[in-house]
Amino acid sequence: MAKVEGDFADAQRGVRVRKNPNYDGACFHCQQCIEKYLKGRLIEAGIKFPRIHDLSRLLDLLVPLEPAWELWRPDLEVLTDYAVMFRYPGETATRAQAKEAFAICRRLRDPLRESLSLRTGKL
Questions:
Q1: Residue 40: other Cβ atoms inside 10 A
Q2: Architecture of domain 2-115
Q3: Per-domain residue ranges for the chain?
Q4: Rounded to whole angstroms, what are the CA distances from 24 to 52, 53, 69, 92?
Q5: How far is residue 86's CA from residue 23's CA, in Å, rounded to a whole number?
Q6: Residue 89 CB-half CA count within 13 A
Q7: pLDDT tens-digit profile of 88-111?
Q8: How far apart (Å, rounded) are the C-alpha atoms in residues 7 and 94?
Q9: pLDDT by residue (tens digit) across 42-87?
Q10: Closest Cα partner for 64 from 86, 85, 46?
């Protein structure tokens, strides 16, 4: 879970920094944070999963256990693109995209932590 919270902290810094912002990194770390929490829940439940970055496919495996999470699908689809979209030359994330990604990450983080019996806030 330390790696997950590291991604959250990196995303938070990436969105807040004014000088030389790295919005690409912020979007990537938001996706990584949520991906790792979803995979943590799968591991806790003893559900095997493929080595993928597609958050919707991971959600498909979790919905039988956590049906309310189906409401997250549109947000997870937004974040899924950020696993690779900005890691290579060609496209660059905007401040608006980074802020949206971080808002999604913040919104989903607490219920994911609770599902893993982690308290909200810092580890």
A1: 17
A2: Up-down Bundle (1.20)
A3: 2-115
A4: 20, 16, 26, 6
A5: 9
A6: 0
A7: 788 899 999 999 999 999 999 999
A8: 19
A9: 999 999 999 999 999 999 999 999 999 999 999 999 999 998 888 7
A10: 46
Using pLDDT thresholds of 50, 70 and 90, give the confidence band for residue 123: very low
Q: How many residues does the chain have?
A: 123
Euclidean distance between CA atoms 11 and 27, whole angstroms: 7
Residue 114 has a CB neighbour count (10 Å cut-off) of 11
pLDDT per residue as tens digits for the range 16-25: 998 999 999 9
**Cα-Cα-Cα-Cα dihedral of 46, 34, 114, 110, to 10°?**
-170
